[in-house]
Amino acid sequence: MLATGAAVTIPLPLLEIMLNESGTAYAQPNTPVPPIYVTWFFGNGTLPGRWKPARTGSGSAWELSPQLQPLAALKSYLTVITGLENKLVTPGIEHPTGSAGATTGAPLSGNAVRAASIDQVVADGISAGAPYRSLEVGVTPATPAGPQDSLHTVSHKGPNSRNNPEFDPRALFNRLFTGGAQPDPGDDGADQAAKLAKVRKSVLDSILQDGASLKKRLGAADTQRVEQHLESIRAIERRLDTMTSGSGSTAACSSPTAPSVGKDAQSEAPPAVNTAMVELSALALACERTRVLSFMFSLPAAHVYYRHLASDMNDDFHDTICHGDAGDQSGQPRVDKGVIYTMRCLSEFLTKLKDTPHGSSNLLDQALVYVTSDTAWGKVHTKAEWPVLFAGKAGGRLRGDEHHNFPNDNLSKALLTIVRIMGSSATEIGIDAGRVTSPLAGVQV
């Protein structure tokens, strides 16, 4: 118990001692290691002419496109799906209807979605027993211009029931490891802050004795994994302590009432915030705090500024760069620069999953990561050639290293394919023009 009255718990990764001899099921109940699902979302679309690979096929039969090149080291884990059309895009409200179509398969009703998002549909089947049914995190809170729920999150329990993302790495750290560390209402604010600062010198110091006792009962491989796990948490904590948000004093940032350190306060999706959220997300998945995650790199129609990339990028990426820059679907250089940066950040996330042991393999082997956006080509809000990428092997239900093209087919089929890969026997998904009754052929093993 902390001085504040909050308990500290350090979740463990999936260790060999917890599994059967093959590493595919838990030792005691003999139930299979559960799958992992992630929606990884980025706003403002792509340049379809530089996103779509030139050839279909598997292995050496196809190559990554220019905008997918940052994922080259992960090609064996990628299933690129092209040709799909978002049938639910509505003129005048392209971004909100595009976001809703890509994540729920349903149109809007006023400002509300009409159906649960794909992450929540998957959570119905795989989240039982996990401390968090789902987690929603984001890199930049750069805001879109519009009231629709589908502009402010891509995770919805249903109509008028948003799961809003957490954009503050420190707040997410506290939620995962200290239960929030909320102050005692009767305690003096300064005294409370001092107590919390002392405790936060290292959350791990309060449980090291338990850790030493645990390691005596583990084999060499599990002992090493626990030591690496604890050190990774320490490293995240140290990094969060040194990050600045660009606003607020050091004293204010150490207070539990103002956990703003690390949050993007400049609407620019900085690399340091992405790294912090990547590491915390991987820990949450590895420790089975959750099996379902929504990672919102940027929101639909986000007014984000990638000024840290180059001197010519200090403009609103949505309004000025995507809509204002001259060029066609293959030739807007500043849009290209922003999309490639986004894919570098996705590569960091996928690489972290691949490098994190889980069961007998790693998180990316066990996961299905659905990568998509709220439009195809942002300049004129096209709905054809919608960006869709599946990453991971989904516990052997995806082969990886493939490019499939489905010209003019319904984007909702990607959602039904996800549901089926995640173990559901559902025969349809979506509403109105988004309703489909068959998945994408040949994608699932």
Briefly summarize what is shown.
The chain has 445 residues and is an alpha/beta fold. It has helices spanning 48-51, 94-104, 118-126, 169-177, 189-199, 208-215, 220-242, 250-253, 271-286, 317-322, 333-354, 363-366, 412-421; strands spanning 36-41, 57-58, 78-82, 108-109, 112-113, 135-138, 156-158, 161-162, 292-296, 357-358, 361-362, 367-372, 388-391, 402-405.
What is the radius of gyration computed over CA atoms, rounded to a whole number of angstroms? Answer: 22 Å
* Shape summary: globular
Low-confidence stretches: 180-190, 244-261
Report the average pLDDT across residues: 85
Summarize the amount of helix as a percent range. 25-40%
Major beta-sheet overview? 8 strands, mixed
Strand content: 5-15%
**Strand ordering within the main sheet:** 2-14-3-13-12-1-9-6
Structural class: alpha/beta
Distance between the termini: 47 Å
The number of helical runs is 13
The string of secondary-structure elements, in order, is EHEEHEEHEEEHHHHHHEHHEEHEEEH
Work out the number of β strands: 14
